[in-house]
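Q: Given only this backbone (184 positions), what sequence would you predict?
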């Protein structure tokens, strides 16, 4: 029987995500007015060139505001884990793909090992809502040993994924007594 788990997390951009779209639109409006009206005031009729420059400015504002909308999808089919980045709800990019059996450690970011594991790996991929990793029980990580390099996948913990992690790699997964069957 196949096991399947999927989680989609929308990245919270914090104050940058709230301030940048507003300031970029206001800046584009001001720059559009300056670029189109100023040459007319001094007597130059170059509306074609200023119009093209205005279109370029607005395209750039639209493009940058779309790039801020990022979601992460973590899917687990049997022991195969795939993390995907979805930008602007259209472009999908596979970030990592590995098996749970390749993991050296699976546990919360509040564990004692987290800081040393993070400093000893090549890169860490944060697929949580927050840009910064906070050491709490809601965020877990998988330390993956892929032969010549090690990396870390940080994800939002769900009780639904815990039995799958324990089933495919029981030695590397931290025990949560309240989620293990048969324990009180």
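A: Predicted residues:
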């Amino acid at each position: 029987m196949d096991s399947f788990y999927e989680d989609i997390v929308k990245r919270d951009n914090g104050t940058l995500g709230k301030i940048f779209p507003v300031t970029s639109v206001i800046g584009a409006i001001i720059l559009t007015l300056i670029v189109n009206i100023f040459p007319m005031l001094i007597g130059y009729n170059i509306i074609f060139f200023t119009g093209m420059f205005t279109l370029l400015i607005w395209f750039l504002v639209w493009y940058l505001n779309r790039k801020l909308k990022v979601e992460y999808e973590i899917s687990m089919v049997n022991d195969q884990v795939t993390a995907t980045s979805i930008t602007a709800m259209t472009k999908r990019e596979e970030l990592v793909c590995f098996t749970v059996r390749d993991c050296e450690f699976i546990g919360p970011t509040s564990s004692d090992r987290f800081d040393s594991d993070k400093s000893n790996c090549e890169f860490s991929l944060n697929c949580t809502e927050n840009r910064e990793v906070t050491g709490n029980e809601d965020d877990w990580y998988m330390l993956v040993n892929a032969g010549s390099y090690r990396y870390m996948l940080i994800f939002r913990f769900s009780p639904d994924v815990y039995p799958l992690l324990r089933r495919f790699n029981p030695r590397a997964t931290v025990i949560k007594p309240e989620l293990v069957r048969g324990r009180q």
